[in-house]
Design brief:
Pfam families: ATP-synt_A (PF00119)
Shape: globular
Distance between the termini: 47 Å
Keywords: ATP synthesis, Cell membrane, CF(0), Hydrogen ion transport, Hydrolase, Ion transport, Membrane, Transmembrane, Transmembrane helix, Transport
Largest sheet: 2 strands, antiparallel
Number of strands: 2
Family: Belongs to the ATPase A chain family.
Membrane topology: Multi-pass membrane protein
GO molecular function: hydrolase activity; proton-transporting ATP synthase activity, rotational mechanism
Structural class: mainly alpha
Helix content: over 70%
Length: 253
């Protein structure tokens, strides 16, 4: 499966779309619809006494509370956690939705397997943690990050470039690359297994067809594993974003 498929709509215009772009648009549309329905259910529940939540509403509450309590509140506390919750919720569900398309028949590739989208989300995380630090500490945020307290002044020649690289360059770069590389690796494994299955079942004879059954089993196992990876990568991306915000807000700055 190509990571840069041919244009499928609006070719020759600034709005040209390939299959990966269409997948991203479909996922975003589904997420908007999903959150709109959840919001409507929550509003109805607030207006109705003795309301018993249905399965759909319960799923929404569990999903949103996972991000709110297990990530935002756990790292930032209730006040700051709720302040940055819209961004963290968006990052988590967009990443999860884009990741999971890699194992959906007809899509067969993650929307995050091309680095453009991970870069956009990493940039959002980057701007947010810098904003959080400057908002709370002003210009002292940069000086404390580049010139850590307790370090002999002579060592700042070595320490300051390292701190600049690790804090302001590597954080967004590693966020984007980690997500992209994991989704590319998973995609390639699935393509390899199922391509081998097709080859052994339809292009070989005799006992060699048994290898097709084996590669199919491996492909199915990797598909289940990719579901776990899709969730874990969404969790890790959101968690690291939260940790960077927490470090920017810490009183050490």
């Amino acid at each position: 499966m190509e990571f840069y498929p041919e244009i499928v709509a609006f070719e020759g215009t600034p709005f040209a779309l390939n299959r990966i772009m269409l997948i991203r648009l479909i996922v975003l549309t589904l997420l908007i619809v999903l959150f709109s329905l959840w919001t409507r259910k929550f509003q109805q529940a607030n207006k109705t006494q003795n309301h018993v939540p249905g399965k759909f509403q319960l799923m929404g509450e569990i999903s949103l509370n996972f991000v709110r309590k297990s990530i935002a509140h756990d790292q930032l506390g209730e006040k700051d956690g709720d302040r940055f919750l819209p961004l963290l919720t968006t990052i988590f569900f967009v990443t999860l939705g884009m990741n999971i398309t890699g194992i959906i028949p007809g899509f067969n590739i993650a929307g995050t397997s091309v680095i453009g989208l991970p870069i956009v989300m990493a940039a959002a995380a980057y701007v947010t943690f810098i904003y959080a630090g400057v908002k709370k500490h002003g210009g002292h945020f940069f000086t404390s990050a580049l010139f850590p307290a307790g370090v002999p002044k002579a060592f700042y020649v070595l320490v300051t470039p390292i701190e600049f690289l690790s804090t302001f360059i590597l954080r967004p770069v590693t966020l984007a690359l980690r997500l992209t590389m994991n989704m590319i690796a998973g995609h390639l494994l699935l393509v390899l297994c199922f391509s081998a299955t097709q080859f052994f079942l339809f292009n070989t004879e005799g006992a060699f067809k048994l290898f097709g059954a084996g590669t199919f089993v491996f492909g199915f196992a990797f598909t289940l594993f990719e579901i776990l990876v899709a969730f874990l990568q969404a969790y890790v991306f959101t968690l690291l974003t939260t940790v960077y915000i927490q470090l920017a807000l810490s009183d050490e700055h």
